[in-house]
Amino acid sequence: MDQGTVGSIFTVIVFVVFIGIVWWAFSSRNKKKFDEAANLVFADEDKEESKQRKNSGS
């Protein structure tokens, strides 16, 4: 195998891995987990706001 063949095989493998990652990321089976992970940032803000309200007495 020459360098061109190895490069072509590597390109095809990387492309297949890329398609697999895109398929996994946009799979409807993973949507619920990703939505929960996306909202974790906002859950921390709610906890901090409630702590601030308790400390300020309002």
Automatic annotation (TrEMBL):
* Pfam families in alphabetical order: FixQ
Q: Which residues cross the membrane?
A: 6-26
The UniProt entry, under InterPro entries, shows:
Cbb3-typ_cyt_oxidase_comp (IPR008621)
Q: Which CDD domains match?
A: cbb3_Oxidase_CcoQ
- Keyword Transmembrane present in the record's keywords: the answer is yes
Q: Does the keyword Membrane apply?
A: yes
Keywords (A to Z) from UniProt: Membrane, Transmembrane, Transmembrane helix
Name of the protein this chain belongs to: Cytochrome-c oxidase
